[in-house]
Amino acid sequence: MNTRLRLAALLLASAAALSAAPVSFDFKDPKGVNAVSFHLDSLLEPIAGTADGVTGTVSYDPAAPAATTGKITVAASSLKVTNSTMNEHLLSAGWIDAAGHPEITFAIKSLDNVKTDGATTKADATGEFTLKGVTKEITVPVTITHLPGAFGKRINKPEVGGDLLVVRGQFSIQRADYGIKPGQNEDKVSPTIDLSFAIVGSAPNA
Known about the structure:
Layout: H1 2-19, E1 23-26, E2 36-40, E3 47-51, E4 54-60, E5 69-75, E6 79-81, H2 84-91, E7 103-117, E8 120-131, E9 134-147, H3 151-154, E10 162-174, E11 192-204
Antiparallel strand pairs: 1-4, 2-3, 2-11, 3-6, 4-5, 5-7, 7-8, 8-9, 9-10, 10-11
């Protein structure tokens, strides 16, 4: 009997471990909704825009959110502002240099100050942010919402299983830190770039 009990306990433990395994979420959105917003609040000419070329993967375990890892990539060429001339300048070699440095990335190294309430986790994500070929370690406050079984509902196919992971956050960087016209045109282009994001990753059932 003791042997049977030990075997049953081992099987239950194995099942629990499998159910708590991390899941890989794909942030190349099948609906094309994912985007990052940016804002430069200069004195004469506040500038706002978006970047919709979001891809990447995040490994997330709802039983262990602090173990989250992953990398989000934004295509530099997808950055857009409403004025076409300003947009050309933005993507040029002197500014973002989309041709020479086609990817803007954030690679998660750790999650700290993790607080989970139901399906939502708030934490400080520390990682390597790369822009225009310059990489710096930054910390970004994030809110992560895990939505089990919601993938099919989002694509209007309720019969399809799978989970969603929504990641929200905002942070600021100094353009001089990334070699973007440091000290120049600060009356028209703020030295501070404010960024915000609300992006969704999908993990459809195989």
